[in-house]
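Q: Can someone sanity-check these two? First one:
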Amino acid sequence: MKLKLLNTVRNQYYAFKYGSRGDKQTVRWSRKDALRHWPLTQPYSGRIKLEHRVVCGPVTRCRSVYPTGELSDMNVEWYRQRATRGALMVTEAVTVALNGRVTRRAPGIWSDQQEESFKALAEVGKEAGCTIVPQLYHCGRQAYAVQEHEVAGLNVPHKDRDYTKVLSPSGVKIPQTPPEGYSTANFALGVPQDHVVEMTPRMITQAVDDFRTAAVRLKRAGFTGVNVAMSGGGLIHNFCHHKTNRRTDSYGGDAWKRTKFAVDVMDAVSEVFPAKHVGVTIHVGYTSCGLSDTAEHELSMYKILINEIEERKVGHLLYWDQCKIPSSPADPGFLSFYEAAPALLKHVRDHYTGCLVSMGNGDRFAQAAEDVAEVTCSITLSEKILHV
């Protein structure tokens, strides 16, 4: 029987189940029985193994040491407080390069000092019996502009690079004023764009190598896997998106070519960790920084990307669904993709066979589970880990 709904009244848990003939049944459970039957408390076994199905997702803390980007004691303690045996924890975004940080206190993994600081976090996972995977990220054109005096005071690799440059696939800047009909909430206003540059082929090669090197450092620090963020309007997301990728070389053009950078990063990281220990985060319905799009463009790009992820047998996929009914009907494309989002989720369920983790719109995820797969095959993500 499949669990449809669970509710609680006066400490009694009521579950609505459907039998093999579609007959609806109501079952009353104690809390102990409810937890035993509730899908989130069940173990998961696939490309990864978990003792329960509640995942602690990436939560930006901005508590690292400035200007070095090392993890602080407060960083490590935050994860220690939430580490649960047999769980999966995906850390906040860890920047792979100095000019890829979204804030000055975002953690990084490009220096020896940072690598050393991550050893304490790896030890937290080992002590708790919890799988902690750092999320690798480069925020691209959303990065704050690094000043020359900041670079001079740090022991950065690749002294020949100009870290004051903010990287973008085609040098497309974030709109500083929303077009007519858009709300200001959909734009990252105030992010300096004076230093945004179009990446050269050499810069692209360097960026891919930054992800590979970051994975190597984390492996030496004691981690068994990583998650690659292809979300949040970051560099990989920008390469995939037609509004920010206007290149005419092998990294731009149609949807297949726009996903090449993402695929190159996946392949580079998979050289360090087995593919089943690598995860990916995608961000569906992201509209900030001028990236509101039509259903046609988003569906075609993400379907290609999902197929590439499955082909590489990536271990887990964080599916971040931010599709909501727009606050204003003047947001073109937003409503159309909100309506088309279930079709993409169905494609994900039909074509991705690894550990699928839902973020954001849990109602749509649960509805899709009814129509496409058993709800017990789902893993639901919460920003705060649940001790069950």
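And here is the second, same format, sequence then tokens:
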Amino acid sequence: STALTSSWAYYGLGLTTSNVQESNARFSIRTSAVGSVWFDVVSVFPPTYKGRANGLRADLAQRVADMKPTFMRFPGGCYVEGDKLVDAFRWKNSIGPISERPGHWNLWGYWSEDGLGMLEYLTFIEDIGASPVYVTNIGISHTDYIPTASLQPWIQDALDALQFANGPASTQWGALRAKYGHPQPFNISIIALGNEDCGKFGVYNQNYEAFATAIRKQYPNILFIANCELSGVPMVDIFDYHIYSNDDWFYNNVHAFDKQDRNGAHVFVSEYAVTQGSGKGNLGAALAEAAFTTGLVINSDIVMLASYAPLFTNVYDRTWNPDAIQFNSTAVAPTPSYWVQLLFSQHTGDVVVPVQVTSPNNTLFACATLYSRTNSISLAVINRAEAAVDVSFDLVDQNKLSGNVTVVTLSSGSLLDENSLDLPDQVAPKTSSFKTQSSPFTYNIEGYSLTFMIIPL
């Protein structure tokens, strides 16, 4: 027990529990006498990822780290906008002591304490070896906006955010970052100006240009992401696609970027997922996304970035469906879509290799890349049909192979199969191998599967 006073004070303690996990456990605070007691910012933390103060739950963070992402887009999309501007994410309210962060209502239907704030995001991104892609509000929410002529405070807020992340410790906001324990800059090199704002209130183009002009003066090397293919607007380095549809759309649009103008801005597919007929995240959705991803890989000279969305959902508060990673207070279950993202991240090389697919029923999709350092080919094959099929692989001008081929397969008996907290590994990758000394060779591709072959040359 601890004596209370008439002033606000911080109280903390460490708890050691038995080795029993209980998802419905409660944390109870009781007083020894009748009276009025005020509480604020009550939080119970398990051990955090890399032991960071106010950090992330280790098992959830590890699932993200296991994907080996090269970047993270943060702090979100619609979360940045807010339903109203008064509810938009404001980064300055998300730094400093947790008890002093005011928090905000967000349009996903809950009060955010902003405990996961600007510094926590940047630190986690650094911890997993990724690069930060920052999304800033440019004076537009879902229901209201700031006219371009009145944007200066919002532009300054974005400039201050970049100084907090990138500035030396001798600057105002860089000094604050150093005070909070990170003297070295985080080096944001890409910033998204708004989220899904094209066409809203007729001001996006003007607001975009005002932000881009001011930022480029101070940070000439930062790349800008526009929310769509803007015509006649300068300083568009990358433009953003958000794609949510059914599995047929993804299969039918594998080649969506084949004819993209190579002299224009690069492409960022920052949100994509099968959201119709996908259950809570089933294999059918994942395979369609995998087929679409082969097109992103093939066109990676123009498709600069891609990311599945959303990332997490608490199973007791599903406000969007599906999501890559499901969890409750004690357990975690990655969906098949998570495994697709992980496998493409872990098994994509640095040089695209042309692939010709002959599939009479259009049930096979493929892409290939070369690992220059190890001189090996990574070949991804999706079979959307139920039946397994013997596929002949011919590596043109490469008759002799080194021998042992590693195979990683994501498959299950039904397209409706899902993972759950009770069955977290019902659909999960399995690794095998086989030997071959020459090309062409034949391999049996399972039905309803994504298969990666790592072929030493």
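A (reply): Looked at the second one. The mean pLDDT is 95. The radius of gyration is 24 Å.
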